Amino acid sequence: MSFNPDDNSSDTESAQGQPNTEPVGPNYVSMKQQLDMEAAEAVGRGECGEEPAKKKKKKKRKPKKNVRNTVNIGSLEVLCKFNTKPTGFEAYFVETPISPAQAEELGKLYSTTIPFAERIEKCIQRYRAKRRWDPLRLQLFNSYLVLGGIRAGQKSFGGGIMIEGRGEDGEDADAADIAQQTATDFVDLVPISQRNANDWTGTPDVFGDEDEEWWVDFEYVVKAFLSHKVPFVFCLHTEGDIVVAVNTIKNFLNYIVFHNVAPEYSQNITKALNICNLAEKELLFCLKLHEKMPGKFNMACSALFGGYYYGLYESNEEVAWEGKKLGSSLGIPVAEARKVYDSAIINIGMKGQGNMPVVVQTDSIEFEVLEIYKPEGDLTALGYVDAHIWCYEGERLPNTNIRELTLYFEKDILMYMFEGLKLEANVHTLSNGLRYIDNMTAAKSSFYTYLEPPVHGDIKDAASAEGEELDA
């Protein structure tokens, strides 16, 4: 075989005489790289037999479940479904530990040389910031402030909030400057002559005549808020809500005492705290009376002689729900009522128990409990209370000849009654002189006080406005 320089067949054949299919030239490297890249992409898409490398999955954090825990508020354990962070309303808590420098600064902030109106404004501002508020507590606290003559909202014509100090350049703002310029609650200095006389019935001469336009009475406002606002305006009818309302006011008053905000009114604040302790007991007793009244004896008399329960059992005897009779829970059978009445008459010692009396008078009145006579024996034993007719100061007594009365109740009801208790109910008088009640509509504490917030101009109760937002 001769050598031909123009013939390149020897370059295209292998040593074994087979043709060489591998490309030759400058584009060989770039073509190979392109093929390798396409193969890698195919493997990544899963189009080839090789499995792609699995990526490690990140572990997702499970959200924390709501913690149900009991919080001690006063003498009651309230079951909460919130996180366990402190709120500042725990029992016996007032303030976190403070340093001597902070104590000195607070002493200047609440100095008695500063007018009381400014001191209480700063106190409310700092107190709000140091508590965790839920909707109910916030609404209660706002209503309490409004009832005491505190406006909520920024001052008029104040513009935006810009903290300015007392230095030449407006710097070096201290706690007093910050509290004053960021305050949102202000004492409403309204002359007594512009107030509704029915709304403000306090005693301005208790604290002297330092200021003829307004006076300070913590006790009076606490009485009105806890005895009227809480049960009859907010309609709080559970033990937990009642304790929360009382604890909120007590917590605020203790904060005032701890920081010595109003030393000139210390005795009055102590009386207000005593009212809080009394309210926690009496308001809960009133709730129990609403559940248990009027008692089996009074229900029997009403079913026999006339009243709310008269004919109620018979009218509901045929009513059924899923095959269950409802009559037994809505009244008392006449035969059973007669046994209860005859047994009570013997125990009371009234004569003529064989003759059935009739109702000669019915009055819808309010009366105040004066003395309570609890019987010996089990909870069904019958005792009695002495009471007299009652109406709030400034109101007229109802048109009735009743002035004093004796009423009978079972022991399990008398154990929740207390001297000074006010009850509103229908009182029926029988021909034999015996009286019974039914259809009780209200039970009021011994310190019941009616007070409405000052109304003038275009001011609106902030708590009512907030309540409308919550309802919406």
What does this structure look like?
This protein is α+β, with helices and mostly antiparallel strands. Helices cover 36% and strands 15% of the residues. The protein has a five-stranded antiparallel sheet. A hairpin with a 2-residue loop joins strand 1 (68-73) and strand 2. It is flat. It starts with 27 loop residues before the first helix and ends with a helix. The relative contact order is 0.10. Mean pLDDT is 77; it is low at 8-17, 66-82, 156-170, 191-213 and 456-472.
Query: What is the typical, i.e. mean, pLDDT?
Result: 77
Task: Describe the global form.
Answer: flat
Structural class: alpha+beta
Strand line-up of the largest beta sheet: 9-8-7-10-11
Q: Using only CA atoms, what is the Rg?
A: 40 Å
Stretches with pLDDT under 50, minimum 5 residues: 8-17, 66-82, 156-170, 191-213, 456-472
Q: Report how far apart the termini are.
A: 106 Å
Quick overview of this protein structure:
This protein has 472 residues and is of the alpha+beta class. It has helices at residues 28-44, 100-109, 116-129, 135-147, 175-182, 218-233, 239-258, 266-292, 296-305, 312-315, 327-330, 334-348, 411-414, 462-471, and strands at residues 68-73, 76-81, 150-152, 185-187, 320-321, 324-325, 359-373, 382-389, 404-410, 422-430, 435-444. Residues 8-17, 66-82, 156-170, 191-213 and 456-472 have low confidence and may be disordered.
